[in-house]
Structure to design on (922 residues):
């Protein structure tokens, strides 16, 4: 209805005015938007063929030239095109893994904060257990067992990275539920579903947004690490490219472009997500502190 | 000479959206051994006024006017002198006693702190003084070894009073000293405060939103509205300003048939200090406002019986 | 209409005896009646109010509405919410800072799926004295004054068209000049809509202002109850006498020593005897007060007090 829309537009206006004052956050956001747009439009210009070993047209491990601006790899494939195409896998895994981790973390965090007693105790024990588990090793093992596909990698990262989100959301849920308006809502007849979705979730959402943005960055790093350690989706991603450069001794043979380009891409995108997430945190958190 | 003399004091907060006039030209005086109550609603500037007395306001506040404490201008004091004046000559008892005490320090050490800071006593003497002070506020000596969370709210407020008394100040400024307390505990604390001023000749400046608490404890009252004193006079007489009358009616006398099933209040809300109404600031809520009230601002004027009130009707009656 | 019979609420905590917050209470609120439940903090008055609302389950005894005992099944409780509504002390905290006035008032009707939401909200707001209601729809709680916020909370309760309002210190956090207006609103709602109210307060002046009947609570029990005029003008129980005596205008003070005692350790005999001024003055045979239990007062409108001196 129109009232809700007016309100949302106003709220977004205030948020944007505040976000704009964070220069680093805006820079990060621009980089992200460009990266995501490029990944989305990639199929209009190239296809998976650029990653095909036999389709390499250039010389092997050729340095940057006019024909291949970022050089080629061991099969003569263009690094530029591979990076472009690989960004789709890297970003997809980053986003979906973060989403998965966020959903698990939010559901369990709100459940642990909203329902007191044994439900909370069980959920928190599970969370603690996952928290002390070395997540990279677990993800490696999980991915190895489940076999390498994009979905498995996403699941492996998502399933191992949710505990910190759950802790954060639980703490915030407890803070929100201590407010008198929760009691008022109960007295109005609101059930568990009503209270968690209408009052708790909107109040934890800003925090969640900030933490998810940071989560995407760490998921991209984890994906690269997994790929580098040999567990990958069998699709070209920035991580698998790094792995390739290592396998073909790019460092010793002086093919710096093979290492540097995917490495820099990872650093840039992760940086952008982190800057964005930090800016979101500072913009949204004071408001939380003031409002809650 | 009065112990405390406030002359045309104004405090303005500078915030992003403009200037907030929290206190607008307040003049007060307090004799030695006298108790003055300042009553007002939230946003009336009463707490700002109390903080301004000892220059405890945040940096974004601009203070103008004069505050003479024992003939010395507080606003012109050097930092070192100001520190000596705080506690030793005038001390503050804040509202919300739980935040005024350090939770990880024993009560006795906190009471002794101002004595040691101002080098008024050796550690041994300070210990003896703490026991004495605790007795004066009606707490057993062994409480000195307790932590703040181990005592009740009323007892914490007693500890705050003991702290304020430690350096034997001439003036105590109490900001809502009994607000968070229960009726019975409030009565206990008020009895204690009254007893202390009577027996030791200390002056009291007490600030509250509750007129009945002040009327009971103080000799004189000043009523603040939107940063100004709108009425001042003895606490025993009847109020002349319509705002003070409304405040008095808000707390009914139990047993008074006129207030039975007839709660009285004022329409409207206290004004926004950034957008004060023209003329008399009270006129939009005033039940007896005249046409001229929206344009003419009235200063405090004599209203008989050592009383002053800032209302145009008062003038007409006394003429 | 709304009644508590032999109500007991205990809070168990590990390693300590259970706190008997409400320890045997009979209380009834009639149709169109305003009852004030008076007591100091920690006497169990808020717990009693929450139990009457069904937010807390009694350890023993029943809450009944219109003669039917309250069922704690989700559906029955939800239906009960349309009859009995709550107004809390702190209007800032009772409103979600992220919701507009409209959403806050519409919350009840949405939960219960009432038709004509906008009309219901507008009507509730204007009944609560926020006129014209449309002007307040898009406001946020922080843009309103304390009195307006409390009116929004009251409007939120009215939107469900309840028969009983339970108000927990409805004016304690409001400015003095606004207080009378909110109390007058409660009286007007009673006159216009026949709304009953249970007002929980520590303020005897408030009881005098609006209540038909007063119940004084001490340490989990009602120690004196009856019509406001009689109880506040001629209190029988020493505790009520002491409470009234500390009001500023009273001629002689009876300041009780000590703090309200602990609900985990309720004294034997008359629960008030350790602080009772009459016992302290030695005017009564102390052993009776110290050892003989007092009966729980019944829920009758006539004046009565739980004291060995009056029985």
């Amino acid at each position: 209805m129109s009232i809700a829309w007016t309100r949302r537009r106003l709220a977004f206006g205030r948020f944007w005015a505040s976000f704009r004052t964070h220069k680093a956050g805006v820079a990060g956001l621009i980089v992200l938007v460009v990266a995501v747009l490029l990944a989305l439009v990639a199929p209009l210009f190239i296809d998976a063929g650029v990653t095909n070993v036999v389709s390499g047209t250039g010389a092997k491990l050729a340095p940057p030239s006019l024909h291949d601006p970022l050089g080629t790899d061991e099969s003569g494939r263009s690094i530029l095109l591979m990076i472009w195409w690989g960004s789709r896998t890297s970003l997809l895994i980053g986003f979906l893994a973060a989403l998965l981790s966020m959903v698990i973390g939010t559901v369990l965090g709100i459940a642990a904060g909203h329902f007191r007693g044994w439900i909370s105790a069980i959920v928190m024990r599970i969370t603690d257990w996952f928290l002390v588990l070395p997540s990279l090793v677990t993800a490696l093992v999980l991915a190895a067992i489940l076999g390498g596909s994009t979905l498995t990698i996403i699941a492996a990262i998502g399933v191992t990275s949710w505990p910190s989100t759950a802790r954060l959301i639980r703490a915030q849920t407890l803070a929100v539920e201590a407010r008198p308006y929760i009691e008022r809502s109960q007295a109005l007849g609101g059930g568990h579903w009503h209270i968690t979705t209408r009052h708790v979730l909107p109040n934890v959402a800003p925090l969640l947004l900030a933490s998810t943005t940071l989560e995407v960055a760490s998921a991209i790093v984890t994906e690269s690490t997994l790929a580098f350690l040999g567990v990958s989706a069998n699709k070209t991603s920035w991580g698998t490219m790094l792995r390739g450069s290592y396998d073909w001794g790019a460092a010793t043979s002086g093919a710096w472009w093979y290492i540097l380009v995917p490495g820099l891409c990872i650093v840039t995108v992760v940086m952008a997500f982190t800057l964005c997430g930090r800016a979101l945190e500072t913009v949204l958190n004071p408001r939380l502190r003031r409002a809650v | 000479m009065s112990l405390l003399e406030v002359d045309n004091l104004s405090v303005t907060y500078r915030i992003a959206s403009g200037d907030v006039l929290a206190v607008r030209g307040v003049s007060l005086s307090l004799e030695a051994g006298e108790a003055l109550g300042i009553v007002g609603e939230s946003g009336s500037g009463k707490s700002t006024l109390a903080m301004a007395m000892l220059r405890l306001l945040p940096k974004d506040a601009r203070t103008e006017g004069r505050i003479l404490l024992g003939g010395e201008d507080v606003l012109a004091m050097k930092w070192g002198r100001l520190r000596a004046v705080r506690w030793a000559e005038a001390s503050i008892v804040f509202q919300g006693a739980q935040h005024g005490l350090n939770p990880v320090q024993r009560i006795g050490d906190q009471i002794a702190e101002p004595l040691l800071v101002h080098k008024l006593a050796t550690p041994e003497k300070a210990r003896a003084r703490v026991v004495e002070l605790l007795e004066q506020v009606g707490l057993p000596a062994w409480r000195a070894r307790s932590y703040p969370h181990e005592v009740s709210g009323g007892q914490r407020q007693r500890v705050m009073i003991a702290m304020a008394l430690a350096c034997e100040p001439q003036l105590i400024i109490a900001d809502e000293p009994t607000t968070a307390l229960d009726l019975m505990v409030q009565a206990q604390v008020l009895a204690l405060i009254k007893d202390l001023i009577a027996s030791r000749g200390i002056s009291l400046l007490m600030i509250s939103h509750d007129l009945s608490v002040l009327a009971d404890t103080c000799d004189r009252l000043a009523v603040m509205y939107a940063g100004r004193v709108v009425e001042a006079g003895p606490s025993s007489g009847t109020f002349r300003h319509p705002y003070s009358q409304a405040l008095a009616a808000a707390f009914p006398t139990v047993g008074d048939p006129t207030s039975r099933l007839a709660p009285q209040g004022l329409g409207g809300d206290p004004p926004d200090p950034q957008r004060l109404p023209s003329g008399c600031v009270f006129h939009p809520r005033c039940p007896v406002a005249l046409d001229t009230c929206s344009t003419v601002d009235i200063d405090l004027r004599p209203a008989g019986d050592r009383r002053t009130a800032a209302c145009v009707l008062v003038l007409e009656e006394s003429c | 209409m709304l009644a508590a019979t032999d109500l007991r609420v205990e809070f168990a905590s590990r390693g300590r005896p259970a706190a008997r917050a409400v320890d045997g209470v009979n209380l009834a609120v009639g149709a169109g009646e305003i009852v004030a439940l008076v007591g100091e903090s920690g006497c169990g008055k808020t717990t009693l109010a929450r139990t009457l609302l069904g937010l807390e389950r009694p350890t023993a005894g029943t809450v009944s509405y219109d003669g039917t005992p309250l069922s704690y099944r989700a559906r029955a409780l939800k239906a009960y919410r349309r009859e009995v509504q709550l107004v809390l002390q702190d209007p800032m905290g009772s409103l979600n800072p992220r919701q507009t006035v409209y959403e806050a008032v519409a919350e009840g009707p949405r939960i219960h799926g009432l038709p004509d939401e906008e009309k219901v909200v507008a009507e509730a707001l204007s009944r609560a004295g926020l006129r014209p209601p449309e002007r307040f729809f898009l406001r946020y709680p922080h843009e309103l004054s304390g009195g307006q916020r409390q009116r929004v909370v009251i409007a939120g309760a009215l939107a469900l068209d309840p028969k009983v309002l339970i108000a927990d210190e409805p004016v304690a956090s409001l400015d003095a000049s606004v207080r009378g207006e909110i109390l007058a609103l409660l009286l007007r709602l009673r006159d216009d809509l026949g709304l009953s109210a249970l007002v929980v307060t520590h303020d005897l002046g408030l009881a005098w202002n609006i209540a038909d009947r007063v119940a004084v609570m001490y340490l989990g029990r009602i120690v004196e109850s009856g019509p406001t005029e009689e109880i506040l003008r001629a209190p029988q129980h020493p505790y009520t006498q002491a409470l009234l005596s500390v009001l500023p205008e009273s001629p002689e003070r009876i300041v009780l020593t000590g703090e309200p005692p602990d609900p985990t350790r309720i004294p034997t005999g008359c629960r008030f005897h350790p602080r009772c001024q009459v016992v302290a003055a030695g005017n009564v045979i102390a052993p009776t007060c110290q050892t003989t239990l007092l009966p729980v007062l019944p829920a009758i409108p006539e004046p009565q007090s739980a004291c060995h001196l009056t029985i």
Chains B and A do not touch (no CB pair under 8 Å).
